[in-house]
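Internal tracking record. Fields below are filled automatically when a chain is submitted to the structure queue. Please do not edit lines marked as system-generated. If the sequence contains nonstandard residues, flag them in the REMARKS field before resubmitting.
Queue: standard
Priority: normal
Entity type: single polypeptide chain
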Amino acid sequence: MKNPGNAVDETEQEDLPLSVKQRAKKARHDSYVLAKERKKNDPRTIQFTEQMKERRREANAQAKIRRKNDPKQIALKEKLKKDRQAASKLAKEQRKARAEATKKAERAGKDARLKASIRG
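SYSTEM-GENERATED OUTPUT FOLLOWS
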């Protein structure tokens, strides 16, 4: 929603000089943008962010090693592996049973057509 002071069209606003209030607002905004840019490019800030990234990487690596050596995690991985193996074995058996059923149905259909052609 626009302020009533901004009711003037954009084209007309470009022709008019800025008021004191508008100049102050623009100056504040420009100084904010400049400060933000300086802070972003500050060598200390960049160094700090790099250090934090490195610390996070190290912490993640250590946590990964801890999880790898944790007996509970190892047992959980083994359980999940066995569950996956059992599920894939069951799925394989089901696929095989479906394939046999369709094969039998196709064979029965061929036999019926063959018998019909011999009789007819």
